[in-house]
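Exam review. A common question shows you a sequence with its C-alpha cells and asks you to describe the fold in words. Practice with the pair below. Do the first one on your own.
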Amino acid sequence: MAPFHPLFLAIIILSNVVVSHQQDYAAVIPALNSAEQEATYRVLDSINSGIPWRSVFPGDLCSSAPHGVVCSYFSEVNSSDDETVHVTELSFGYVSDYTPNPPCAADAVLSPLLFTSFPFLRKLFFYNCFNHSPVSFPDIAVGPTDTLEELVFIDNPSFVGSLSGVLRNFTSLRRVVLTGNRVYGRIPDIVGDLVNLEELTLSRNQLSGEIPLSLARLKNLKVLDLSHNFLSGKVPPSMGINQSELLKLDLSSNGLSGRIPESFGAFKKLQFLDLSFNSFGSFGVPMFLSDMTKLREVYLSGNYLGGQIPDVWENLGNVVRVGFSDMGLEGNIPASMGAYLKNLSYLGLDNNKLEGTVPKEFGLLKFVGEINLENNSLSGRVSFPGSNLTSRIGQTLKLEGNPGLCVDDEDVLWSAKNSSNGSFGQLKLCKKEGQKPNPVPLEGSLSTAQAFPNSGFVILGLLILLLFA
C-alpha cells in the first residue's frame, strides 16, 4: 500500500463513524447517481490505488466523501421540489493539515473519466501529484466538462503538454493556474476566446515565443502571471488598453525586449507589477508609474533601463516594495522617495551608478525593513536626524560598495562593521567640521623621504662642513 499522510488516515476513520449517523437522512437527501459514484471511485483509484476507497467510503459519496470531493445540489429546471446532487469539485494532492486532499501515489495518472463523467464539474485541482512518469491531457473529445471554471495544476513536474492541448476543450474557464509543470510551446490564440477568464497564471513552465495579441481580448482579467518561462519579443501595447481590471501583472524572468508599453499606464487598478529580469531596452524608468495610484509592489530589476530615477512618487503612498536593482540607473536618489512612500518596507537600488548623498528623508520611513544601496557611487554623510535608521546601518540600511560614504557616530561605525547579518564595505568615520584633511600625495608621486632615502645623511654632512670651514 502506498504511504499517505497520517491526518488523512484519521479523517478516514472519523468518516466511517459519521456514515452510520448519516444513513438516517438518506430518505430526504438526494443521493449521487450511480454513474458519478462509480466514476469518482475510479478516479480516486487512479490517484492512489493503495487506499481502499470503496470500503472506507461505502455510502453515498456526496454524504460522506474524502476531503477534496465536493458536491452541490441542483434544482430541476421545471420543478421547485425535485433536487439532484452532483460532484462539482475534485482536488487531489496533500496540501496541508487544513486541506488534506487525497494524497497522490507515485504511480498516479490523469484519468479520462475526469473529462467525460462529471457533467457539473467546476473545479479540478492537482498539487504535486505527477512527479515520475510523464502525464498529459487525454486525447479525447471532452464532453460535459465544458462547465469547468477552475483548472489548477501546481508543481507537477511530470505533467507535460502544449497549452493548446490543455485548454482546447474548455470555454467557461474563469481561473487557469498551471504553475511548476512542463507545459511547453507558444501561448495559443485560443486563450483570447476564454472571455470569462479572471486569472491566467502560467509561471514556471517551458512556454516560448511571443505574447499573443489575443490576450488583449481578456477584458475581465485580474491576474496575469507569465513569469519564469522562455517568452521573447515585445509586449503588445494593446494589453494595457483593454484590461482595466488587472490587479497583478508578472512577466518576470523571461526574454522580453523593446520598450515597456506606455499603455500600461491604463492599469489604474494595478497593485503588483513585476517586469524584472528581462531585456527591456534603455528607455528609462517609465513615467506612467505615477498614474498607478493603487500600486503596492513594483519590480524592474535586471533590465538595463538606464537614466535617472524619476520623481513620480507623490501619488504612490500605497507602495510597500520597490525593486530597482541592476538597472544602470544614474544621478541622485530622489528625496521624494522617503517623503512620500510612507508605507515602504523594501527598497532595492543596489548595483547601479547612483551618485550624490543618501537622502535624509529615508529617516521618515517607519516600516522599512531593508534599503539596499550597495555598489553605487554614493558619497557624503549618512545621517538621519531624529530617526534610528542610522543605528541600523549594515542591517536595514546596506551601503557596501560606496567608498565615498561616511558616518558621524563612531559607535554606529563599530556596530555596522560587527553586524552579523549586514554589510558596511568601506564605510568610514566622517571628519569633524573644520578639520583639515591630511595631505594626500598625487597618485604615482613620491614623498621626499621616498624620493631621497639618504637625504638626512647629506644634510648632516653639509652642516659639519659649514662648522669647520
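Now try the second one, then compare your answer with the model answer below.
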Amino acid sequence: MRVSGDAVTAFRFDWSLQRPDGAGFATSSDIQADTLGHGWAGGLRLLELRQNEEIVGSALKVEGILQSNALTKADLEARRWDHASLKLALKDTSGGSNGTVCMGELGQVAVRGQTFESSVSIAPRKLASSPCVLTAPECRAVLGDKRCGVDLRTRRMRVAVAHQDGVRLTFDRTIEAQYRFGRVRWLSGANTGIDQDIVDIIDGNILLREQPPLECIPGDHLEITQGCDGQPATCGDIFSNIANFRGEPNLPHTDALMRYPGA
C-alpha cells in the first residue's frame, strides 16, 4: 500500500502459470511498498526482477511455498512445471492503470523442503523476432505445426507398458520405425500428463531421451505420436508433404561458397 497525500494506492502482483500439458493456475501476491518486500499471499514471491532492453541482462527469479494442491512437491520433483509459461502483471487495486510486467518460461525448478525456487527465461524485445529468415538443409517446421500442416490426429497410437528398463520401454505391441523422434504422453500411472521425447526405435521398443521421472509399472498407458527427422525424403515419402518442406537442402554450404579455383 502506498500513501500519497489523501490518496491511498494499493498494488499487487498477479501471477499466471501454465504447464506444457495445459494445467495451470492464477494467483496474487501483495506488495509492501514501505519495505519493498513482497508478500506470500498467493504462495509465490518475487526474488529478483531485472529488465533490460539490450541483448542480455533481463532476469527473473521466483520463490514459492508448497501450500496448495496447485503446486505439489511431487509434481515439481517430477518436473511437470519445468518450462511452464509465466505471466507477471502489476495490479493497481485502487482502480488505476494496470499492465503486464513480463512474460517468460520457468527453468528447472529446485525444491527445498516446503519451498521451491526457479529462474524465468525472459526474451528481450530485441530478440522477439528474427531480422532475416534462417536457412538450413533440414526442415525448420515442427511436425504438425502450422508451417508443416500434417494432421497428427491420424498418426497417434495408444499403447500399454509391458516392461521398463531405464530409458527403454517395451509395449503390448511392436512399435514401428516412423515413431522415431516422436513424443510420448503418459495417460495413466504416476507419470500421467508428462511428455517425453523418443530418440530411437530398436527391435520394436522405444528409447526415451530421459528415464521416466516417476515409477512406471506394467499396464501404464501412453499415447505415442509419430516423429520426423526433418529430411526431404521423410517429408515426401512418409508424410506426402514435400510442398510444405521448410528447408534448403540444395543451397550451397559455407565451405562450397569459400572454394576457389584449384581447391
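Model answer, second protein: The first strand starts at residue 2 and ends at 4. The domain at 10-125 is CATH 2.30.110 (Pnp Oxidase; Chain A). Full marks require stating both points clearly.
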